[in-house]
Amino acid sequence: xxxxxxxxxxxxxxxxxxxxxxxxxxxxxxxxxxxxxxxxxxxxxxxxxxxxxxxxxxxxxxxxxxxxxxxxxxxxxxxxxxxxxxxxxxxxxxxxxxxxxxxxxxxxxxxxxxxxxxxxxxxxxxxxxxxxxxxxxxxxxxxxxxxxxxxxxxxxxxxxxxxxxxxxxxxxxxxxxxxxxxxxxxxxxxxxxxxxxxxxxxxxxxxxxxxxxxxxxxxxxxxxxxxxxxxxxxxxxxxxxxxxxxxxxxxxxxxxxxxxxxxxxxxxxxxxxxxxxxxxxxxxxxxxxxxxxxxxxxxxxxxxxxxxxxxxxxxxxxxxxxxxxxxxxxxxxxxxxxxxxxxxxxxxxxxxxxxxxxxxxxxxxxxxxxxxxxxxxxxxxxxxxxxxxxxxxxxxxxxxxxxxxxxxxxxxxxxxxxxxxxxxxxxxxxxxxxxxxxxxxxxxxxxxxxxxxxxxxxxxxxxxxxxxxxxxxxxxxxxxxxxxxxxxxxxxxxxxxx
Length: 498
What we know:
single chain; alpha+beta; 4-stranded mixed sheet; two-stranded antiparallel ribbon; flat
């Protein structure tokens, strides 16, 4: 049996007819058609994305494209739901085999995941194009070259004096050492005196460029002048060891300064600057005296303003940051936020669809209304609570347990009441998040303890435990969707309506 589909290949028509005759439950989801048409759309979208003009130095415009595609995906989702809701084997008490529940859930998740994933294609294409145009090593090498060359060319005009201050461990904070009475007097070599609590004191010493110890509770800390005229900003967090620091420049160039071939070096710097420079409005350093009303030209009094303008620092820095942002969008931990947006959006829509397909329309929408009302009431109560961060977790768990009890009671009754469907629906909706709520409650309680009892060892695996809880919730849902939730729905839905 073959059904004519617009723009459908022969093999899709054959597959469509075969599924209709042999596996109506699978056919009703129409996942094969969504995969086929979405695949064509994604292919055309990808070709368009690679063919359109794109400059990685510019600010990203993927937000516009992703927003447009989100609208397209929403329309596609609505069209798919219209076809999906025309046929429901479960509600018509059709023949269903073991495993059909998990298969239906998986197909729903697959289709919705494809549609939800489409808006993520433009930023992915942009990242591919940026990585093709520039390598990390290339950008970092140019970053280093510009910073080192500016110090070499402008050596005589730059400040080479390290700033310094004396830091003291303040006994008034922890009551252990009488540092105030032992404080060294102010001298030109020791700079200004600063008193810090123990945490700030030791952090200041560790992060200092250089230190001289006076005693156990007093240090002179030195800070190197800032030679990074092209500031690091968001520049490649994954190549920190390759980026020169101000101390590197001081040791390699300032301490061992050699007069360069100025014309040659300036030509090399301007060549690299031209590689990244883009004409942008308001790209000037705001250290000027005035702007000519006739020509719009800038007249600088600030030397640093003239220096930044001479090497187009603002333009180059912006271009480099744009390039790196596009290149490293999915590297390290950067993928986690878009992945969670994708996953939880897909999961929630899938759960809502599964609920709608296995319960009555009345119980479905009443269940959403109950959640909305409880959320409003809970928010108001938590706003008046003294410790809402800790209290919200047991409250949410209490709601989840109450929905589970309501579902079991509704399942065991002689007739089908909406309260049973509301309970099962909301019990299912909250199920994947229960492990995360428990682990989150545990760590929030630890964070709420007095500072004097703080133990860093208790939190060293916090991130890992939260990720495990996320995974555990999803796995438990997959394991129990067929033997528990589908049976709850079947028993409740088969009861005579009240």
